[in-house]
Amino acid sequence: MERQTKRRRKTLNSSLQQQIIASSIQTRSKTRSLVIDFYFPDECWEFVFKFLINYGNSDGNNRLYLRCLSFVSKQFLSITNRLRFSLNISNSTRPLLPRLFQRFTNLTSLNLTHFRGDLDALLAEISCFPLNLTSLDLSQKPTIPANGLRAFSQNITTLTSLTCSFTKSINYSDLFLMVDCFPNLQMLDLRYSYDVSEEAVVHVLRTCCNIRHLNLTRCSRVKLRTLNFKVLKLEVLNLSFTRVDDEALNVISKSCSGLLQLLLFYCSDVTDKGVNHVVENCTQLREIDLGGCDKVHANVVASMVHSRTSLRKIGAPPGFDLSDTEKLFLHHGCYVS
């Protein structure tokens, strides 16, 4: 009896094990089937990741999602690598550049603001890699790395945006070098570079025929009075905190009649006369900032809205009261702040 009981138990255990194994195999099969059914090609994942990064992204923090997503799988790592278009280079990341450039194959923008070292040598090193860069940021440097830019431009000819803001010393020859190295520039940012001269900026505008965006904030030596030729493609001009005056605005508005955005924040020498030159000659103007222009009368806002219908945003001068005219301006499709 005992032997028969043991045999029955073994048979039952064996049968139970077979059922468990069969059930496990069936579950795995269903799981694989589901995985196959829910497989997304890389292009779809790229779309999803771009949505996560860009949706509601006002401060750039959403890009941190890339780091989290890259931990999920090798497939996600490969996709997030392709979605990385900018790189900040510091002293700690420089030894890793070969690996980083090999990993992020779609880089278009480099920021060297936080690098403290031999900038000429770094730029020469970067030029040895097959990169299709369009943007370079060299802000907060004591001088312009002339030798490095020459080496950089020999192999990287795709650059269209150059930022050299807060540079302690930029002389005439530095700007000549920039346009010689990068004749296809569309954006040049020289804000808070106090040594920039009028003659050098005029040369930039004459030579770089494709320039669309020029930031001269706090470039106190520049007025652009000597601009005596057409700058057809310039769309955005920032002259905030400069000594530009009515005469200069008359010249600028005739030479740069295609301006879409003109920023004159705290330009204390500008009056109604200069503003009227701009409104009359810049027929496509969409935005103008007159904040802090204490010589511009508040009444000029109403005349601007009515005479230049392309305007969509106005930074009003001091003393302007929006309460009485808000509905009227909004009716014309212009936001006044």
Automatic annotation (TrEMBL):
<dbReference type="InterPro" id="IPR032675">
    <property type="entry name" value="LRR_dom_sf"/>
</dbReference>
<dbReference type="InterPro" id="IPR006553">
    <property type="entry name" value="Leu-rich_rpt_Cys-con_subtyp"/>
</dbReference>
<protein>
    <submittedName>
        <fullName>Putative leucine-rich repeat domain, L domain-containing protein</fullName>
    </submittedName>
</protein>
